[in-house]
Amino acid sequence: MKLTKILVASFCASTLMSGAALAQTDLTMWYHGAGNDVESKIINQIVDDFNTSQSDWKVNIESFPQTSYNDSVVAAALAGNLPDIIDVDGPIMPNWAWSGYMQPLQIDESKIENFLPGTKGVWDGKLYSIGLWDAAVALYARTSTLEELGLRTPTLDKPWTKDEFMDALKKAKASGNYKYALDLGMNDQGEWYPYAYSPFLQSFGGDIVDRSTYKTAEGALNGDAGLAFGEWWQSLFTEGYAPGTSESPADQQTGFIDGSFAFQWNGNWRAVATMAEVDDVVFLPAPDMGNGPMIGAGSWQFGVAKTSEHPDGASAFIEFALQDKYLAAFSDGIGLIPSTASAAQMTENYKDGGPLAVFYDLSNAQAKVRPVTPGYVVQSKVFTKAMADLANGADVADTLDAAVDEINADIEKNSGYGH
């Protein structure tokens, strides 16, 4: 009798355990970080923690190389094979939402009240994605260079004006101590161009597209402000202040560190490596070209596929991942800006007094998202070509007019992209 009771008890326990395991509904997730061991370790830890924290859902992650990730998502969407959870580059999200690849998140938005603005993916008034980090650009300089050239150190409260910025470049060039006064990273002719350079255009008072309607680029890209920006932009190359599109990746990688460039326009993701080589590097805010200083915002974010049969579970995972400890882990692991001030205090680099704390402040004070429109996927490519053409000597007015025509034709072709 005792043996029978033991066997029955054992069977019941086994059944309960099997039932608990079976109760977890599988969720699929795609991620862009294949090949990055540090990043993969962190995201897999979040998945494991979530799976063991509750008994309703089990996330299964598959990682892709970043270079092929977007194409994989688009192909899967067309074939009806999207996973439940996807990550998406912030400026691409409106296109994926408009195209029917994504659905709004089901999360408690009070939990993201204190997130940096650039981490929130909003389209058509709804939150579709949220990021665990953001990125920011600053003007890299040396304290010794500022002293040598007799330059005022700009601050967030009092950045350089356009005249001060150009005075700095002129003095650096005239000193004869540098191959170039400024490096802009012109070798990277991808998303870097609109992310890094369109804020200069916006600081002049122009934009890639008219954001009041998103129905035209006329007057925004080729108006008086756009033309003034184009002339200024071209002068950086024609007057020899910066290397152009033929710059080699190797020169861009080492040019500031070895002293070939007096200043460099670069992101926080390169800051740690630069600090290791340059003792007196400082990260300066964007100059004010007349309408306020601006830098780009918006990096990779998490969202839920439109076809997911379990958006509640997918959203539950994303909400779980928003904990400060995970934001801090990503920041310490891959060097990007944590999404909240409280998470920043948990990091080595971004806490108060940390060597990269300035980037959090820059992101909070100067960051502006790229145009929030499904048409951005085309507009970014048109803008990139126009910036490269201007750097190579093309006529400013003709180039910007042609860019406007191409952008407007695409907007018309897509019936205004829902705006």
Please explain how this structure is put together.
45% of the residues lie in helices and 16% in strands. By secondary structure, the protein is of the alpha+beta class. The chain folds into two domains: 25-135 and 298-369, Periplasmic binding protein-like II (D-Maltodextrin-Binding Protein, domain 2, 3-Layer(aba) Sandwich); 137-294 and 375-418, Periplasmic binding protein-like II (D-Maltodextrin-Binding Protein, domain 2, 3-Layer(aba) Sandwich), CATH 3.40.190.10. The radius of gyration is 24 Å and the shape is globular.
General form = globular
The fold-level CATH name of the largest domain is: D-Maltodextrin-Binding Protein, domain 2
Helix content: 40-55%
Rg over alpha carbons:
24 Å
Family: Belongs to the bacterial solute-binding protein 1 family.
GO molecular function: maltose binding
Protein name: Carbohydrate ABC transporter substrate-binding protein, CUT1 family (TC 3.A.1.1.-)
Signal peptide: 1-23
Short key terms for the protein model shown above:
2 domains; 419 residues; D-Maltodextrin-Binding Protein, domain 2; 16 helices
